[in-house]
């Protein structure tokens, strides 16, 4: 393409020189080639006319050559464009395949995590049974069912967070309100489900039921809990607290830890106490 452009420039320069010579022979000012008529041509003698026409035919032939080369170059560019589009389509397909494989891998990882949790619970219960019962005694089907149920509940609960202090103004748009709470601290989780816990009090208008929020994964739930402390800086939601969805046993342990923390804080003033990793 670069060579073709160079040849076109060269041909243009030659044609420009020819037009100057032709105008000089026809006694016309430069730039007035369109004003030439037959009377001007008739004033030329045969050698001058033959020279003029010969050069004109030569430039017309070169012009047609440039047109052919431009057509070929355009066709080549179109072919390159089509090939590039094919490569883009192929890349998009590969990207889609990679996403599908990634989703499958994620599903397998989640399944593996559940299986590992079940195995761990089995091992824990098995060790307890071995210590407390004769070796020949086997685990009952009811115990196995209880273990599996416990593991599944723990896995499902790990996807949840509990919001306390969220006013019951318009629960028809509860999901949107919850989303606004999280967005105020820079979080945009995929909310799967929201619901109030318990029955609404008919006697006390000040009683506010907590909200259970189910998100896409336990990792997202952990991030929401970790960033929830920033709500204290948001005027609209400074009374809202976010906690993990704990089991009854875990809630009792947490209450005991809070009580112990308050007692130690009152005894050892000047020190800061907090609960981390359930301790």
How would you describe the overall organization of this protein?
- With 279 residues, this protein is α+β, with helices and mostly antiparallel strands.
- It is built from seven helices and four strands.
- The chain has helices at 2-25, 38-42, 46-132, 141-157, 174-183, 218-227, 248-267; strands at residues 160-164, 191-196, 211-215, 241-244.
- The chain has a four-stranded antiparallel sheet.
- The longest helix is centred in the N-terminal third of the chain and has 87 residues, at 46-132.
Share of helix, binned: 55-70%
Strand content: 5-15%
Strand order of the largest sheet: 2-3-1-4
Structural class: alpha+beta
Low-confidence stretches: none
List keywords for this structure.
7 helices, 62% helix, 279 residues, alpha+beta, 4-stranded antiparallel beta sheet
Give a brief description.
The chain has 279 residues and is α+β, with helices and mostly antiparallel strands. The protein has helices at residues 2-25, 38-42, 46-132, 141-157, 174-183, 218-227, 248-267, and strands at residues 160-164, 191-196, 211-215, 241-244.
Set out the fold topology:
Layout: H1 2-25, H2 38-42, H3 46-132, H4 141-157, E1 160-164, H5 174-183, E2 191-196, E3 211-215, H6 218-227, E4 241-244, H7 248-267
Antiparallel strand pairs: 1-3, 1-4, 2-3
Helix pairs in contact: 1-3, 3-4
